[in-house]
Amino acid sequence: MALVDPSGYSRPYDHELARALAGRGHEVTLWTSAFVHGAAPDPAGYAVREHFYRRTNGMRVGGRARPAAKAAEHLDDLRRLGAHLRRERPDVVHVQWSVLRPVERRFYRRLHASGVPVVFTAHDPVPNVGNAARRRSVAATARSFARVICHSDWGRRALVERCGVDPARVRVIPHGVFGYLTELERVAPPADPDGPLAVVPGLIRPYKGIDVLLDAWSQMRREVPGATLLIAGRPMMDVAGLPTGQPGVVFLPRFLSDAELAAALRRADVVVLPYRRIDNSGVLAAALAFATPLVLSDVGGFGELHRRDGVGELVAPGDAAGLAGTLARVLGDEGLRAALRERSAAAAGGPLSWAAIAERTESVYAEIM
User: Fold this and answer.
1) d(CA 302, CA 281)
2) CB–CB of 211/181 below 8 Å?
3) Among 130, 71, 55, which Cα is nearest to 103's?
């Protein structure tokens, strides 16, 4: 079978799914590109073909010629991928992300019509970035596949009600935990204060509510004066106006390696995800692998995970005062943190385990093979 993630947007997810399927006896190849931000997870029982963007990934990010050159290379890479798939005829093609959506809609419809079954995972059913045209394009893409996997009931409703996807085509399979992070060689954490540590890792974008968290932090520190907040991730927005210089805040505006992320999560007393909107999150999947206590906005799949499995403590999105109070309660109560760890560990070993997810994914493949 073939997994396709041209830009490597979800390499940790690709890795966990591929090795779980390989463990169930499937011959899996991941078709992707070189991961430009650091080391990608080492393949475990599956093959990786860094097929996409072999020329343009070397061009300067932000250069004026790069987008057009990358689009042209993508078309050529897609053509060569199609020739390979029609020749080798895998049992199923599982698409993780679509890049040039209008082109790829036709490409995958034709591939499916030729007798090569195609499944799509809608990791981001309603895009958190981009305009209305982007949302319409994403919706049209989801409608073009015979089966669409999403990670929550919220995602299913979004696909059906907002994107117009036939409900008979949608299957809900949870986002599994990133257990491979627990297997990495240990390094020193990016921050290791004497007192309690709250961590918010990952790309910094407006919808992630970092501004709300920073507003809450000064209030929270009146309750837990020795606490430290680590914000670590590459900014994808203007961060100049954020109050990152306030007491107790460590701001690392750069990409964290997997080993650094793992070290931060091991050290964290709580991971905070104050998102304004989301379906599911790779950062959440990483934190769950370490059973780190969580404080989550009640949005998308986050609220479902709490109500179904007891994971984390919920706060209303955008509520700085509520966030401050909840953080103070979690950081100040060792018994509560222990209970949160137990619930996270139970979810990680049960419904969010890759053994369960691979089995459910197989059943979707069987429907269209």
Assistant:
1) 9
2) no
3) 71
Kindly provide the residue ranges of all beta strands, DSSP E only, lying in the chain, ordered along the sequence: 2-4, 29-33, 47-52, 93-95, 118-121, 147-150, 170-172, 197-201, 228-232, 249-252, 270-273, 294-297, 313-315
- Residue range(s) occupied by CATH 3.40.50.2000 in the chain: 2-176+353-368, 183-349
CA dihedral 309→345→260→53, nearest 10 degrees, is -60
Distance in angstroms (rounded) separating the CA atoms of residues 74 and 87: 20
Kindly list the distances between the CA atom of residue 309 and the CA atoms of 138, 280, 305, in Å, as whole numbers in the listed order. Answer: 30, 15, 6
Nearest to 273 by CA among 347, 207, 220, 340: 207
**257/189 Cα distance (integer angstroms):** 11
Low-confidence ranges of the chain (pLDDT < 50): none
pLDDT of residue 126: 87
* Dist. CA 254–CA 73, nearest whole Å: 28
Structural fold of domain 2-176+353-368: Rossmann fold (3.40.50)
The DSSP output letter for 40 is P
Return the SS3 of 251: strand
What per-residue confidence (pLDDT) applies to 83?
A: 95
Q: Find, among 108, 192, 201, the residue nearest to 147 by Cα.
A: 108
Cβ(35)–Cβ(8) below 8 Å: yes
Q: Say whether domain 183-349 belongs to CATH 3.40.50.2000.
A: yes
Q: What is the predicted pLDDT for the residue at 129?
A: 76
Q: Which residue do the tokens 């499937």 mark?
A: 26
| C-alpha closest to that of 332 among 193, 196, 191 | 196
